[in-house]
Design a protein that fits this description.
alpha/beta; globular
Length: 312
């Protein structure tokens, strides 16, 4: 099976009341873990690449790793997506380089400028058979090159979405309803609550249109504890409650982005292994433990949060 776009994935997800997991990839072990879990659970997936991942691993290496995963998992739909494309040139490079989906993030621009840059990417992408995700509203937090303070974050305004979607021709829309990037999303002792009122108002204004949630890691506390017990210092790392993500997946949210949870699982496995036996120096010995953790995270998300098990 070749790489696919997200069009059919999102149509089925919207109608079926589930979401597709968009998992960030940075190296071979993470690609293996995600696709093995999805293959065993017969779930469609999106493998997404950030600007930081392209700098770290190189565009070509990442594409070839995903192509290898397709060979190993020929029966599940896999889309290759650019996460947080900063400008037209980056999106064009990924479109020309084999990606089937790109995100143009113009959320830091004024409304009209966001429309202008998004429309330019959409026109080029659609001419090459690639789909486009855009963003309205700004999430707080840090993810690679994306750094937004709490003061500069803003919820998506429902009264803007119809005009934005109509004028840009975009295929899906990332919105800000209270999620945030990174592992430190909420203050300890607070009860995180997504703005479902905003989500449902947007759902009414653009019925049937696929919505995306960024910054949706839940920060598994078992991995935080393992990391901290083995030399780490992740104080007060708190994520999005999974029951709220499942509720979102039952509505218009068709794509849920997950990155920090994978990093936590990988790091916990590596730290625990090296702390337990300081004589280990073979990367295979500690990376295989981290890879198993990432696979477990992805399997849990597919079965218990996204609801995409058996939907391939």
């Amino acid at each position: 099976m070749a790489l696919v776009t997200t069009t059919e994935m999102f149509k089925k997800a919207y109608e079926g009341g589930y979401a597709i997991g968009a998992f960030n990839v940075n190296n071979m072990e993470i690609v293996q873990a995600i696709t093995e879990a999805a293959g065993e659970l017969n779930s469609p997936i999106i493998l997404q690449v950030s600007a930081g991942a392209r700098k770290y691993a190189n565009h070509t290496y990442l594409v070839k790793l995903v192509e290898a995963a397709l060979i190993e998992n020929p029966n599940i739909p896999i889309a290759l997506h650019l996460d947080h494309g900063a400008d037209f040139e980056i999106c064009k490079s990924c479109i020309d380089g084999g990606f089937t989906s790109v995100m143009i993030d113009g959320s830091h621009f004024p409304f009209e400028e966001n429309i202008e840059v998004t429309k330019k990417v959409v026109e080029y992408a659609h001419a090459h058979g690639v789909v486009v995700e855009a963003e309205l509203g700004r999430l707080a937090g840090i993810e690679d090159d994306v750094k937004v303070s709490a003061e500069d974050s803003s919820y998506t305004q429902p009264d803007e979405v119809e005009e934005f979607v109509s004028r840009t021709g975009v295929d899906s829309l990332a919105i800000a309803i209270g999620t945030s990037h990174g592992a430190f999303k909420f203050k300890p002792g607070t009860k995180p609550q997504l703005r479902f009122d905003i989500l449902h108002e947007i759902e009414k204004r653009i019925p049937g249109f696929p919505i995306v949630l960024h910054g949706a890691s839940s920060v598994p506390q078992e991995y935080v504890k393992i990391i901290n017990a083995n030399g780490g210092a992740l104080k007060d790392a708190i994520g999005v409650p999974e029951d709220q993500l499942r509720e979102a997946a039952r509505s218009a949210v068709c794509k849920i982005n997950i990155d920090s949870d994978l990093r936590l699982g990988l790091t916990a496995g590596i730290r625990e292994t090296l702390f337990r036996d300081p004589s280990i120096f073979d990367p295979r010995d500690y990376l295989k433990v981290g890879r198993a953790n990432v696979k477990a995270v992805v399997a849990h998300k597919i079965k218990d949060v996204l609801g995409s098990e058996g939907k391939a």
